[in-house]
Amino acid sequence: MSTDRYPFREIEAKWQRIWEETKQFRVHEDPSRPKFYCLEMFPYPSGRIHMGHVRVYAIGDLLARFKWMRGYNVLHPMGWDAFGLPAENAAIEHGVHPVIWTYENIDYMRSQLQKMGISYDWDRELATCDPTYYKWEQLIFIKMLERGLAYRKRSTVNWCPSCQTVLANEQVEDGRCWRCDSEVTLREIDGWFFKITSYAEELLAWCDRLPGWPERVLTMQRNWIGKSEGAEFDLRVDGQPDLAIRVFTTRPDTVFGMTYAVLAPEHPLVDRVVRDGAEREAVARFRAEVSRQSEIERTAADRPKRGLRLSAKVVNPFNNTPVPLFIADYVLMGYGTGAIMAVPGEDERDWEFAEQHGLPIIETVTRPEGWTGKAYTADGVKINSGFLDGLSVAEAKRRATDWLVSRGLGAARVNYRLRDWGISRQRYWGAPIPVLYCDVDGMVPEAEKNLPVTLPRDVQLSGKGGSPLASVASFVNATCPRCGGPAKRETDTMDTFVESSWYFLRYCSPRHDTGMFEPNAAAYWMPVDQYIGGIEHAVLHLLYARFYTKVLRDLGLTKIDEPFMALLSQGMVIKDGAKMSKSKGNVVSDDFVREKYGADTGRLFELFAAPPEKDLEWNDQGIEGASRFLNRVWRFVIAHVSELGAGAAPPSGAPPDRSRAATVPTTEQGRAFRRTIHETIQRVTDDIEREFHFNTAIAAIMELVNALQAFEAAGDGATPERVALMREAVETTLLLLGPFCPHVTEELWSQLGHPESLFKQRWPVVDPAALQKTEVTVVVQVDGKVRGRLLVDVDAADDRVRQMALGDERVRPWVERRRVEKVVVVPNRLVNIVTRA
RNA sequence: GCGCGAGUGGCGAAACUGGCAGACGCGCUGGACUUAGGAUCCAGUGGGCGAAAGCCCUUGGGGGUUCGACUCCCCCCUCGCGCACCA
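Structure tokens for the assembled complex are given below, as produced in the milestone run.
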């Protein structure tokens, strides 16, 4: 057990107190300064902050403090995503009311964050379960309802049997619940939806205009939205003139290859094309079989396709040929029209099905030479396709669509995979949906003056299913805001992703009480300049928030199109091969690390161990290294305080101009050392600002400290020049390290005699003169292998360098008795002598 | 299956637009100080040969482009992630 650690406990408590007392990180709109809105995804108050959380907040704090020092007015808020199931489950298991459980967790986690010393403006703290918060969400819900952006319908939805609630499509991963991993089932239920599909095109288009986002997140969003262009048209049912089946295809060029058609088993027209009792029975049996499959089984691509041939036939409008009609499990009711024309020649799924059922296959695209595959889906010349023969696929698509349109048989059509966002939750701990049902007026939104519709405190939570609010008579029985008669309240609550879809706007004016946010404040701060959070929300929260922001814009509340300009998706913190989580029992608590090593050390280690986008394996030994480094800095500065501190304080409190040294070094050693200082400034600045490579930024600072110690050790006395250089190095080190380890650097900064906070200093500026070199080492290679080194003047003439290289005595033996074929000179870098025997 | 991304010492990782591979740190080895060291400091640390100078090999594997390849191109292997019957 190490003993001689710097007194981090006292230092951290001291500076947290001072920052709080001086309200150092409280901010206000200030149009005279550039703003920077730095935001980390707010946490769900699950209980304790662990090292997985620390990583995100350390990154956010580093960027916020860095931007402060770069002269920005930085908004850096924190709050709580406070509604959600764990609170309700805790209530069921332990009998604690969700409100108690939630606020106790918030209190504890807030104290943990405060002990981390993050530069939050705590005056802006919010919790989404606060009625003054969700009130505005209810108001927006009503406005969305008026515009048809919120609607209620009965539909087949994803149901999590363990959470006892509906899930949106985005919240199902691999057929399992995103939160509890239970297998999701399907259920027919009434529920509320947000019409995110109305924004599909815009959400997709803006993916191309978010250069600050990681490409993989944008790809995931594009895939999720799943745009496909094609055509829709009717297939007449043979012998039933009043019946037509609408199909959607992305390949209208292949219609001449249609050899059958398929309806989803649930398709409503199935009942109308069925001819007799026996067939009806067969259909019922098939449907039962299909519905027995779980969602996972049904959508797995690698399982055999099951189908049932119906007696009816449908007619291909292009050539009036009747083809057989099937119902099959590989056609989904939820996409397109729930019915397809099947073209086995050019579609892999149809090929597979056709083979199984002995159906004919017509090729309508010329295969390339030597093609041995089955269905052919690439481009080629059209064949067997009537008036389309000889065209390319793209051209044939256009012509076929035109043909349909001109005859009034169909239309060009764009489909999206994205479905509307189901937001009804049959649970208690969420924001009530502000709607009532009246016998006279039907479904009625709550009057604005009656908002918020608050969640009642007294409720029986059993987890047995059904919305718990339904059993709270005082909540359910209400007054119709339209007729004043009795009405019943909606008892579903909203998906908690609704709260997190606008909290970043609320932070701009968190106590504003006449609207969602104060428009001028939002206009000043928004959009978020840097958002930081986990990759797990690539499609969930990040898509919902983008959608909701656009809705607010269209309601006239804000002018911004997109909430987050730049996104940093940090990797997970792994321990023993798994993500840290309570259920896996591999959590390294923030309390443990902070008490043993200090907050600065914990943060430093997480920022140093890996670049932020990569997963980080927690390593108990690695943190010792971070601790050792900070101790080394501490000991060095303390040991030299008296000699360095003297005169270090600027006379008037004005920040000294650090871009010019008090002294221009007179020795080569001094010049080299000062060059190291300024190279470090450049490296650290670039690493933070350009690439988010915090690990290499820290490495550069470590190198500077190593150089500082070497410089000190190699000296033969404290000349004024040496002291000035060391002071420059020490101050630069503290300034550069500040955003990573704020407490220890702030303390040392003050010990050096500076009356003003380190974080009110300007970020160090590179002195170009210090970077200048007079000589460089040039590597000499012979046939690509390093054989020698030359010390030459910077920008020495190529010819001269060539001569020196050829004449170098370490190089000569490798060149002797060989012919020099060529000499490549890369100025200030290397010489490569190419030889031949 | 399709689409991305990644494979570098014992470990975490560096390497700008092709130009000294392995910065920085962990671990390990030896030494100093010490009653002690799990503190601190010094030295060493990719592999092989060698007393040393030095030489040879080395960025998943194979080919290619180039004076020169971790970096660019082609094929293959492994791992991770995403999508996964979306017509």
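The radius of gyration of chain A is 34 Å. The mean pLDDT of chain A is 90. Further analysis is deferred to the final report.
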